[in-house]
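Let's practice the habit of predicting before peeking. Look at the sequence and jot down your guess about where helices and strands might fall. Then scroll down.
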Amino acid sequence: MRKLAWAVATMALGALAGCVAPVGPVQVTRFHDAALVSSLGQGTIAVEPAAGMDPESLELRTYQIVVARQLRALGYSESDNANSNQIALVRVSRSNFQPGRNGSPVSVGVGGGTSSYGSGVGLGVGFDLSGPPPEQIATELAVQIRDRASDKTLWEGRATFTVKATSPLADTQLGAAKMAQALFAGFPGNSGETVEVK
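Done guessing? Here is the structure:
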């Protein structure tokens, strides 16, 4: 009997483990000039930190790697030198915040009814004991693709993603890949349109 209980508990924990990482949507907005779209997705490109970003940051480097992977899948050849045709400038920002509670943690309900036996009124009081909402982490990944020779912006996009601070997707390694995939899904996308990528 004890072995059966252990097996059931193990299966239940396995099922819960699969639910630990909620896969919420990524908000994606992209901009480009229709006249310049034909130059995208070809030639050589260098993936570099945007102005103001720390080039030594391991977190930024992780995002640069996943952005480079997506660009290669689109048809670019990655180049690490200053002779590349285009440049992809990567910017990442992360912030922690505590969401506020909607409404009061105390609710009061009044109910009444009548029947052939008389009438009655009841009063109910409910308490929300769930505690404050969990801390959240919001991440924004922004990429700008520029033509090196003319310095014109050919394409730019940003992806934002918010998860619980305890979610595995709050980890840079998992979250970076998800955001980069969403940002470049359907590249180059409709200019000025914000979409949710699940």
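How did you do? The helical segments are 2-19, 58-74, 172-184.
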